[in-house]
Amino acid sequence: MKYGHFNRETDEYVITRPDTPTPWINYLGQKDYFGMISNTAGGYSFYRDPRHRRITRYRYNSVPDNQPGRYIYIRDVEKEDYWSPTWQPVKKPLDSYECRHGLGYTRISSAYNGLNSEITYFVPLDQTLEAWRVVLHNTKEEPVKLQIFSLIEFCLWDALDDMTNFQRNYNTGEVEVEEGVIYHKTEYRERRNHFAYFACSEPLAGFDTSREAFLGSYQGYEGPQVVRQGDSKNSIAHGWAPVGSYQVQITLAPDESREIVFLLGYSENPEYEKFSEPGIINKSRARETIEQYLDPAQLDADFEDLREYWEKLRSAYQVETPDRDVNLMINTWNPYQCMATFNLSRSASLYESGIGRGIGFRDSNQDLLGFVHMVPERARQRILDLAATQMKSGGAYHQYDPLTKEGNEKIGSGFNDDPMWLILSVAAYLKETGDYSILEEPVVYENEFGTEEPLHEHLERALQYILDRLGPHGLPLIGHADWNDCLNLNCFSKTPEESFQTHEDKTDGETAESVLISGLFTLAAKEMANIAHNCDYLGDPESYRKHAEKMMKNTMEQAWDGEWFLRAYDHFENKVGSQECEEGKIYVTPQGICTMAGMGREDGRAIQALDSVREHLATKHGIMLHQPSYTRYHPELGEISSYPPGYKENGSVFCHTNPWIMISEAMHKRGDRAFDYYKRICPPARESISEVHKTEPYVYAQTIAGSDAPTFGEAKNSWLTGTAAWNWVAITQWILGIRPEHEGLRVDPCIPSDWSEFEVTRKFRGSTYEIKVENPDHVSSGIRKITIDGESLEDNLIPVSEDRLWDKNLGCHPRCR
Q: Which CATH number fits the domain that encloses residue 119?
């Protein structure tokens, strides 16, 4: 069943019925101010940090679902009838409904009883506000008298405190209403220097800032007393729950239209006023902004700027292939999702409350693989921010706070794979930009002033971190966990709090080893060798190659299980992911990472591992994380076995890992297999089974229920997942085969054999490459010849244009040699 369709002309997903299986969301904002918005206007907004700067409330796991949000109520005065043009929260049946999720905006249109409405929500570039543009059109032959009520519910800034500390929060709500603008200043008297505001372009017939006054006692969003009665109370919140609501009254003649603009924004006093008189906010800058952005002409210009912004980002890689789903994802939705993961990591979605997680170290280093080609300058800063949370030991805080950029001490380190991802992200940045100067950039450890060392020293320490932590079989110690956060092989006797390492890592008594990290280390060491080959900052390339070769040799000796790679050794040195195991015999993760690292390529064991994946783990809905699923709790394995079979980390289709197998299949020149796996989890390819898949058909999900689950094929955790970046790498760099390397742009397709041709436009280091690949013999791989501007090349590596290589204005930087 389909709930909408893609519009390639407008680059929108058009939802045609409001009751989607789950809320299908979009994101507003590009830099500091962000909002999550569903197809029925549910969601919330925040400034930079979804916990500490939450602007509006949102209730997770509530009934009804997906409330509150950015609400408009329309009331026909004469008929005393009211409805929501976004369907929720009133949920009155509409004569027509359409939601268009676009790049950085959402537009919801509907019709009810002769009145057409259209609401466009977006955040202007570089602004800390969102605009709601409400256009009403009377299609009837007689005039209609209308009352329009807006509603947002303010959060008391700290989202966790807001939902838990009621003995305080029931007393602190505080607002001001001045010149028709509602200012939310709760806790300002604590000498915080930020506040929110809500404004309207129309003369007001009334307003409300008290939730109880607006809704009524024991009433919900679906039927507020103010809307039912058609009369705002002009209430001022004193303690209790502050809201922002305006009443506008208009009369529309037949065929007349009217636009109303609402602004929700965030503002701060100038820093020098931070310690001014408590409770006094500086409204001057906010008023200037409000006056500017209540003007529809200004919003027209800003909306066009927003379109141009996304067009520029997407233009870095565009394709035309024989496959509609590939074109949709590469040209629009995959890079769009990659930018969301860059902005938000895993912090704010329908599945992440914005409270428990900041910016993830491993997460963001992987996310960088998907956005570095679009915003290399911001990728550079993200690398430096991440490196600054690294510890002197070479380990890293698993997460850091987006406001302070300080590491999260509660979570700490102990995820022993984390440091390797920094090496891989830096390598990706260098290949994309040629900016080797980043390696000399001084970066602190643990955000501690005075500990600065060049970034390349951070990379050296990251590699050494693993070499200092090898277990009984010579494989890397797993610590608290590796990429599988829930595979806790050393935590069987600890409480969850004790299981997290804080500050410098201790490995006494911890013997569990990770085969995934051995593959990851091998990849990282090879990348270090390549970097060293291209610059003088690092040591001898051969030394890194020897580290990689030694780890490969030891892994093949200690972790090959006959037909696939082991997953790990637990604390007791028992095998995990082995044919000897009753449950969890084979894991996809080591098969992907180890074969990507080149293990088993010479003797055919890599092919055997990939074939084992196809035999034991591949399903019509994607490749499962492991099989068989765990049917009981295993304390020696930790949280992974706490999930029911087939869900999340216990045998689901963990989509994040599927691209690792796609890449390995492409490396081994099996293009039909690689593409087959790509299509199994590709969102548009699953659009026709939306009633099964449930999450959005335009972005990747983290997991899909595995074959052991009763809801096999049902997706969860969409949007903020490393699946986005890794699928981008798999399809663009390995299947289509257009990938950056230190010396230039490699053209090495490994495509489905039934493709006759495809075209790629790729911007790379200041040049634009128009690439056409012809496949008249219908093979999957192999370059017969390559020409550039009519001249044949001896190799399939296109060198960087010399006249563009060092132009910093184009985002390119000098190499070391």
A: 2.70.98.40
Task: At 278, give phi and psi (nearest 5°).
Answer: -60, 140
Q: Which long-range contacts (CB under 8 A, 24 or more apart) does 314-318 make?
A: 314/103, 314/374, 315/761, 315/763, 316/373, 316/374, 316/762, 316/763, 317/373, 317/732, 317/738, 317/760, 317/761, 317/762, 317/763, 318/760, 318/761
Domain boundary among 283, 310, 337: 310
> Per the domain annotation, does 220 fall within a domain?
yes
**Pairwise CA distance, residues 107 & 110, whole Å:** 10
Q: What is the mean pLDDT of residues 776-791?
A: 94
Asked if residue 476 lies in contact with residue 518, where contact means CB atoms within 8 angstroms, the answer is yes
The Cα–Cα gap between 398 and 482 comes to 11
Q: How far is CA 491 from CA 409, 440, 570, 587, in A?
A: 18, 39, 10, 20
Predicted confidence at residue 600, as pLDDT, reads 98
pLDDT of 12: 98
Question: Pick the catalytic residue: 65, 385, 485, 672?
Answer: 485
Mapped onto helix, strand or coil, the DSSP state of residue 44 is: strand
Two structure tokens written together for 232? 């705002």
Number of CB atoms found within 10 A of residue 601's CB: 15
Residue with tokens 């890293």: 396
User: Has residue 396 been placed in a domain?
Assistant: no
DSSP line for 691-738: HHH-S-TTS-EEEE--TTSTTTT-EEEESSSTHHHHHHIIIIIIIS-E
Counted domains in the chain: 2
Whole-number Å distance between alpha carbons of 704 and 334: 18
CA distance 400 to 610: 36
Rounded distance between C-alpha atoms, residue 255 and residue 114, angstroms: 10
Q: What are the Cα distances from residue 599, in Å, to 477, 541, 565, 571, 730?
A: 19, 19, 10, 25, 19
What is the rounded CA–CA span in Å between residue 314 and residue 308? Answer: 10
Check which CATH number belongs to the domain holding 797 and give it: 2.60.420.10
More confident residue, 727 or 268: 727
What is the SS3 assignment for 407? strand
Q: Which of 262, 284, 310 is the last residue of a domain?
A: 310
**CA gyration radius, the chain:** 28
Burial class (CB within 10 angstroms; exposed 0-12, middle 13-18, buried 19+) of 506 = exposed
**What is the per-residue pLDDT for 509?**
43
Q: Does some domain include residue 320?
A: no
pLDDT of residue 786: 94
Does residue 381 have a pLDDT over 90? yes
> In terms of residue numbers, what domain contains 790?
740-810
Rounded Cα gap, residues 205 and 540, in angstroms? 75
Give the span between the Cα atoms of 634 and 64, in whole angstroms.
36
Cβ distance 664 to 595 under 8 Å?
Answer: yes
Q: How many residues does the chain have?
A: 817
The per-residue pLDDT for 280 is 72
Q: State the number of CA atoms in the 13 A half-sphere of 85 facing the CB.
A: 29
485 a catalytic residue: yes
* 40: in domain: yes
pLDDT in tens, 252-266: 999 999 999 999 999
Angle at which helices 671-681 and 658-667 pack, to 10 degrees?
160
Lowest mean pLDDT among 264-273, 275-284, 652-661, 724-733: 275-284
Measured CA angle at 620 (ends 323, 676), to 5 deg: 35
Which residues fall within 8 angstroms of residue 721, CB to CB, at 6 or more apart?
A: 341, 346, 655, 656, 700, 701, 702
